[in-house]
Design brief:
heterodimer, A: alpha/beta, six-stranded mixed sheet, B: 53% helix
């Protein structure tokens, strides 16, 4: 029997374990496998194979029997029934999958399947600049980031070349340029707005093409991944059969599988990371099989925690031992605190007179973007930090359907171009992380796997509300200067978390007293555990964060590989 | 005497069904309720000789949608409203709803919108909006009339509008 146990343990032993297969976990798996490490990648959800597991992809509305409405039998047991449809039901969470205690109202969107939210993201990929990295230090919140732009820049390059990022070289210090594939030209109204900003605000406000993870012109590296040109289907969140946008499923996971070094293990709910007190390091991961409820241990020299921000916090908090009674690497008890997200409270819309002789044709996968302009070089307002703005102008068409009969039919068959173009913008603000916004584990309640329930305690703070008020004011002013009419700008009391950009809780920093992770995303107190998803964020910036997570991951994975070679882990 | 054992006896109205009518087998609607739905679709979006609600299968879409995607309570209300339309037709005109001329059907249907009962207004709005949706999202309308292309592969935001 003893031998059998040893064999069994051997078969569950790898060089590396990656918890989570979303954008950052996929990158960890790819880098580790490329370096020859036998890697186990765990995901708590079902497997999703590129192309073959995208049942709603490349379908028109008339390809669905009920035109997208879900039949009752497909709806039962699922949460968030309101916006479920045939196009997204396969990502829906079973109602009892993971009970959460929302101590304050919060919207937590979870992607529990292989590929995670990399299948569902907005695909916007803007780099950070040192104005973002230096934020906490300059403005006196959180702790100083242990790295700066120059340390991450080569990893942005590395990730961008492989993922395929479409963009313009705009030459802006607030938003450094990257490795770009061709962009799509802005439309006539967006160009007008751009020119108006230039005229009225000089070099302080810019409107650019929003850089996005779409292959607009496949290079050799994308062809090797089996990915093709984005054809602007605009159904990205169903999965793309062309691999036109970056997801773990279309890119990093199949790449890692091709090395022969990757083992994908879906249906693996991670309970904790196993810490060995004699060795003074983590030795593996304990999972509960989602389907059989069997507890299984896997072992490895290094562990990457990429379970998505809130779950990465929860797993580490639940990794208790005599040495770490409060959670792995959590002597300072800061884990779970300084949880943050992005301020999406502000929205604005307006009509655009003067372009009635112009219209759009075709489609595009992205929108325009105004990088942060508030408090960039110095503090200018009564709130900290600033916001970027997403911008999209278009000219729709529609039909008057107020009647019944022949006229209704004829109106529907002959839709009319709207009289005017419309422009809409949305705010993407940096929330200042505060200790009080936090993730913790419940003392007694457990979920159906017996894992302590997560308690989310996070709310908007005064700074967020002031920042959104400023967006309303500034956006209105920018619209007025551009000649837009019927301006409607609002600071809406949306649920925090609606941006789906959860960050922090296991922050990076310079020392183990005030942070959890070092400059290479290693737990200060358990160096063979790397946390490189959103949980590692010291502060949030204004950029959609996925590109940042991927670059940090690639950098940390390569450091891990080097350290392993030097026998330092 | 009943036909023996396992033999399925089809009601007389089922004789002569077309293949696509077989979708009706999955519904709890009676033949007459289906007839009212058909009349409503034909009244809301009549054919111009080339295309209309019925020619693109909006009736089938509605029958499937209500039977498969809505709870029993909703189905019950919906059927009660169909019955109500017919009752009104009988009371006012001494005819079944589906035998009334289109103008009369339209007036009966529109009166649902102004009834005090919220259910009636919901019925009017649901029936009209779903008939429009079924028509607008049909392949015929999307492809032949609205120029639907799944993969445009280009964008031009500066196209002249033809005068």
């Amino acid at each position: 029997m003893a031998n059998l146990n040893i064999d069994s343990k051997k078969s569950r032993t790898y060089d590396a374990i990656v918890i989570g297969s979303g954008a950052s976990g996929g990158w960890a798996a790819k880098e580790l496998c490329d370096a020859g490490l036998k890697t186990l990648c765990l995901d708590r959800g079902k497997n999703i194979k590129h192309i073959e597991d995208y049942p709603a992809a490349s379908k028109a509305p008339f390809d669905f029997e009920f035109r997208g409405t879900l039949p009752l039998e497909k709806r039962s047991g699922l949460s968030s029934g309101r916006w479920l449809s045939e196009t997204n039901v396969q990502w829906a969470l079973a109602q009892d999958e993971q009970e959460v205690v929302y101590e304050k109202p919060f919207r937590w969107f979870r992607g529990y399947h292989v590929g995670g939210k990399s299948l569902l993201w907005a695909r916007q990929t803007q780099r950070w600049s040192d104005y973002d990295f230096e934020g906490p230090d300059r403005d006196g919140f959180a702790v100083d980031w242990p790295i700066r732009y120059k340390e991450l820049a080569p990893w942005y390059d590395h990730v961008e070349k492989f993922a395929g990022i479409s963009g313009d070289r705009d030459g802006l210090d607030v938003l450094p340029d990257g490795q770009f594939l061709p962009s799509t030209e802005l439309n006539i109204v967006e160009k007008h707005f751009k020119a108006s900003l230039k005229k009225h605000y000089g070099d302080s406000r810019h409107l650019i093409y929003g850089r996005c993870a779409h292959v607009t012109e496949p290079k050799e590296i994308h062809i090797q991944q089996g990915r093709g040109k984005c054809m602007a289907q605009r159904q990205c969140n169903r999965g793309c059969i062309l691999g036109g946008y970056f997801s773990s499923n279309s890119s990093t996971i199949p790449w890692a599988l091709k090395t022969g070094n990757l083992t994908m293990r879906p249906d693996a709910v991670v309970e904790s990371v196993i810490y060995d007190e004699d060795k003074g390091k983590a030795v593996g991961v304990r999972i509960i099989d989602r389907l059989t409820r069997e507890t299984i241990e896997f072992y490895a020299d290094i562990i990457f925690v990429n379970a998505s921000t809130i779950n990465s916090n929860a797993i580490l908090l639940n990794s208790r031992s005599n040495r770490f009674p409060n959670g792995l690497g959590n002597d300072n008890e800061l884990m779970g605190k300084y949880f943050t997200w992005h301020n999406y409270r502000g929205h604005a819309g307006a009509t655009v007179p003067g372009f009635s002789n112009k219209k759009e044709e075709g489609a595009r996968p992205t929108n325009a973007y105004i990088p942060r302009f508030r408090n960039v070089k110095k503090q200018e307002t009564d709130f900290l930090r600033g916001y970027a703005i997403g911008v999209s102008a278009g000219r729709g068409s529609g039909s008057d359907t107020s009647m019944i009969g022949d006229e209704l039919r004829d109106n529907i068959l002959n839709p009319k171009l709207s009289d005017e173009w419309h422009i809409s913008t949305w705010m993407m603000g940096e929330c200042v992380p505060v200790e009080d916004n936090h993730i913790r584990l419940h003392n007694s309640l457990v979920d159906k796997y017996g894992i302590p329930q997560i308690v989310l305690s996070a709310e908007w703070k005064e700074n967020d509300i002031k920042q959104a008020d400023d967006y309303v004011e500034q956006c209105t002013q920018m619209f007025e200067k551009a000649g837009f009419k019927n301006i409607n700008a609002n600071n809406r009391d949306t649920l925090p978390g609606s941006d789906i950009h959860e960050m922090g809780g296991v922050r990076m920093g310079k020392d183990s007293k005030t942070s959890l992770l070092n400059n290479y995303n290693q737990l200060h107190q358990c160096k063979n555990v790397f946390v490189t998803d959103g949980a590692c964020m010291t502060s949030g910036g204004t950029q959609n964060p996925t590109l940042h997570f991927m670059a940090l991951t690639a950098r940390a994975a390569n450091h891990a590989i080097d350290e392993l070679k030097k026998n330092n882990l | 005497m009943m036909a023996s054992g396992s033999m399925l006896v089809l009601p007389s109205w089922a004789i002569g069904w077309k293949a696509d009518d077989m979708a009706r087998m999955n519904t709890t609607f009676t033949d007459y309720q289906i007839k009212i739905i058909t009349s409503l679709v034909d009244m809301i979006i009549p054919s111009n000789g080339e295309i209309g609600g019925l020619s693109v299968g909006v009736d089938q879409y509605l029958i499937g949608l209500i039977s498969r995607c809505f709870e029993e309570e909703f189905q019950g209300n919906f059927k009660a409203n169909l019955g109500q339309l017919d009752d009104h037709a009988q009371e006012k005109y001494g005819k079944q709803f589906s035998d009334c001329d289109r103008k009369t059907q339209e007036n009966l249907f529109k009166s649902m919108k102004t009834n005090e009962d919220e259910n009636d207004e919901d019925f009017f709005n649901f029936m009209k909006s779903q008939t429009i949706k079924g028509f607008e999202t049909s392949e015929e309308v999307m492809v032949n009339y609205h120029g639907f292309v799944l993969m445009p592969g280009f964008y031009d935001g500066n196209v002249d509008v033809e005068a």
